[in-house]
Amino acid sequence: MANKYIELVKKWMADNSSVTLEELKATTRAARDAAYAANADAAEAADAADAAYAAYAAAADDASNAAYWVKKYEELTNDK
Predict the structure, then answer these.
(1) Which long-range contacts (CB under 8 A, 24 or more apart) does 31-35 make?
(2) Is the pLDDT at 36 greater than 80, yes or no?
(3) What is the DSSP code (8-state) at residue 78?
(4) Cα–Cα nearest to 16, from 51, 63, 78
(5) pLDDT score for 39
(6) ∠ CA 26-27-33 to the nearest 5 degrees?
(7) What pLDDT digit, counting tens, does each position of 44-74 carry?
(8) I need a labelling partner for 37 at 20 to 30 A (CA). Which of 3, 44, 47, 78 fits?
(9) What's the CA gap between 69 and 65, in Å, rounded?
(10) Ramachandran region, residue 49 (left: φ > 0; alpha: ψ -120 to 50; beta: rest)
């Protein structure tokens, strides 16, 4: 199952103008909140944390860092 936060970052990576800064900031907050909510499930929390870092990097217009966190998420979940 695809992670909606990672998918938004991938969309931004493909075309920076396809996602607004507001969307990226909201995604950062939502992914961070999901990580906190999933605290009981370490794997789920790690997935959400990677997504939050990716969205934060995208919001900061840091494509290489966003790509790093997307890759880390994909390696962890085998979700590409």
Answers:
(1) 31/5, 31/55, 34/5
(2) no
(3) T
(4) 63
(5) 65
(6) 90
(7) 777 778 888 898 899 989 899 899 989 888 8
(8) 78
(9) 6
(10) alpha
What pTM was computed for the model?
A: 0.69
Region for residue 42 given its phi and psi (left: phi exceeds 0; alpha: psi -120 to 50; beta: otherwise): alpha
CB atoms within 10 A of CB 37: 12
**Which distant-in-sequence residues (6+ apart) come within 8 Å of 10 by Cβ?**
70
Average pLDDT over residues 9-16: 94
Is the distance from CB of 7 to CB of 61 less than 8 angstroms?
no
What's the Cα-to-Cα distance from 14 to each of 7, 8, 27, 33, 34, rounded to whole Å? 11, 10, 17, 25, 24
